[in-house]
Amino acid sequence: MNILCAYNANIDAIYKVDGQKMSEIAEGYKEEIAEKMKDPPGHISSIPDFFAGLFICMRHGTGAEWLIRDKEVFNWLRTNFLKASFMRMGGNMGIMANVLSELGASRVVPNVANPSELQMSFFSERAIYIPDGGEAVSSRDQEILAKHIGDEGELIHFVFDFKQGDSFVFSGNGISVPRENRFIASYDPLNLELHIDEQFRNYALEHINEMDGALISGYHLLREEYPDGSSYKEKLNRSIKQLSEWKKRNKHLHIHAELGHFESEEMANDVFNSLVPVVDNIGLNEDELATLARMNELDAAGILEMDSRAIIETAVSLCKASGQKRLQVHTHEFVLSVSSDTRSEAEQVLESLHFGVDCAATFACYGKLYSREELLQIASSISESKTGKKQMQKIIDYIPPGEYDITRRYSVFRKYRGYSICAVPTRICAEPVATVGLGDTISSAIFLRELELRA
Question: Would you say which domain of life the source belongs to (predicted)?
Fold first, then answer.
C-alpha cells in the first residue's frame, strides 16, 4: 500500500520534573511568576510564563499545553532541558506514519514541516520516503534531506512530567503535587498553520494515481487567530483544496482524517463540516464526539461514560445530518464504526478493527510493534476489556436482530437507522509501558488493514 500522510510531525522532549530543582531555577523570577500564577497568560512569551504554567499544573495535579510564542524562550528551554530529556517522535501524523511503515506499508510519504536531522532520526527506516525534486528518497538519506531544513529550526514539544507526592517551596509557599500529570510547552509555528511542504505538495499531485490512501491529522493545532491577524480558516481551506484535488485526480483514493481536541468547540465543528465532503472516514474519541454532539444540539449524555448506545445514537445522527459516510470512534474500552457501507464490507471492517486493537495493545505492553505474526500472537494473550465486552452485549440487546447480524469473538455487526454498526472491545494491558499515541496507533493500523482488504 502506498500512503500519503499529513500534516503534523514534531519532536517530543520528555523531561522528568524535580520540583525543588525547578524552584531553584525559578528563584530569580519569583515575583513575576507569582503575579502570573494569579492571572495565567495561557501561552509562553517569557520565562516567568513558563514557570507559572508549570507550577499551576503541579499545584493542582492538572495537565495543560501552552504554546511558546517567543523564540528566545524556546532557545532557553532547549539549552536548559533538552539534553536531560527523552526524545521521541511527536505529532499525530508522525506517529501514524511510523505505524504504517512498521506494519508493512510499501511506501509512506509524509508531509514534514521541517525535516531536520534530529526530526528524521525518529522516523521508521522501513518505508518512510521524503519528497525531493519530484521523487521520494528514503528517510535514511540524510545528505539529501539536509537541504530541506526550514528556517524555524526544530519543532519541539517539551513535555514536563511531574509525579504525585513531589513537594517543594516556592516564594515562601509550599507546593505538593496531588497527582501525576504533565505540562507541555510547545514551539511549533509551522504545524500550527498546517504547513504544507512544497516538495510534498508537488510530489503528491504528480504521484497521486499511485497512492492507495491518505491519512490526515493535525487540524486540532489550528488557532482561532494568528500573530499576523489571520484566522484558521485560510489554513483550513488550503488543506481542503489540496484533499479535493487529490480526490479529483484519483477517485479511488481512500482518505481518513483524525479530528483531535480543538482550541474551541466552534472550530472543531467547523473543521468537521469542512472535512465531510472530501474524506471517507473521520476518526475521533469520546471527548471529541461529545463536543460535536453539543455543537449540533444532540444529547451528549452517556458519551463520556463510553456508553455504546449513546455513542451509536450520536454518531448516526451526525452522519445523517452532515452526510459523512463513516465515523470511527475509539475509546479506552472499545472501538466502534458507524457507516453507510454495504453489508459486504462488514467482515472487512470487523477484521480491521480487531487488527487495530491488537496492534495498540501490543504497543501499550511493549512500547514497540513487531512482525504481524508475532504481534497477533502477543495480542492474543492480552485480555479483552471486560467493560468493552459488556458494551458489546449492550449493543446486541439494544438493536433488534436482523438477517445479516454478526456476533462472534465479541464482534458485533448490526444494521441500525440505515447504517452499519461494527464494534469490537479493546485489549487492556495491565502494566502499560507506553500510553501516548495509542489512539494514533489503533487508527492507522485499522486504516492500513482496510486498504489491504479493499485491494
Answer: Archaea
Q: What is the pTM of this model?
A: 0.90
Q: Is 374 exposed, middle or buried (0-12, 13-18, 19+ CB in 10 A)?
A: exposed
**Strand pairing category for 173-176 and 254-258:** unpaired
Per-residue confidence (pLDDT) for residue 404, from 0 to 100 = 56
For residues 105 and 140, the answer to whether their CB atoms sit within 8 Å is: no
Amino acid 368: pLDDT: 87
Same domain, 138 and 234: yes
The pLDDT value recorded for residue 276 is 98
- Here the CATH number for the domain that contains residue 179 is 3.30.1110.20
Q: 301 is written with which cell numbers? A: 449524555
Low-confidence ranges of the chain (pLDDT < 70): 142-152, 342-344, 403-409
Nearest to 447 by CA among 138, 208, 105, 205: 105
**Helix, coil or strand: residue 335:** strand
φ and ψ of 435, to 5 deg: -125, -25
Q: What is the pLDDT of residue 144?
A: 58
Long-range contact set of residues 166-170: C-beta below 8 Å, sequence gap at least 24: 166/17, 166/18, 166/19, 166/58, 167/19, 168/19, 168/20, 168/22, 168/23, 169/23, 170/23, 170/26, 170/30, 170/33, 170/55
Residue 240 is placed in which grid cell? 481542503
Q: Residue 17 region, left (φ>0) first, then alpha (ψ -120 to 50), else beta?
A: beta
Number of domains in the chain: 2
Is 29 strand, coil or helix? helix
Taking phi first (over 0 means left), then psi (-120 to 50 degrees means alpha), and beta for anything else, what does residue 409 get?
A: left
What would the grid cell of residue 226 be? 494568528
- Separation in Å, CA 177 to CA 54, 164, 181: 11, 5, 9
Q: Write down the pLDDT at residue 163.
A: 93
CA distances from 295 to 265, 267, 289 (A): 7, 10, 10
Q: How far is CA 350 from CA 204, 355, 357, in A?
A: 30, 9, 11
Tell which residue, 229, 252, 248, has the closest CA to residue 240: 248
Q: Could you list the residue range(s) of the whole structural domain that residue 183 is in? A: 10-89+152-187
**212 and 178, same structural domain?**
no
Could you tell me the three cell numbers for 91? 505529532
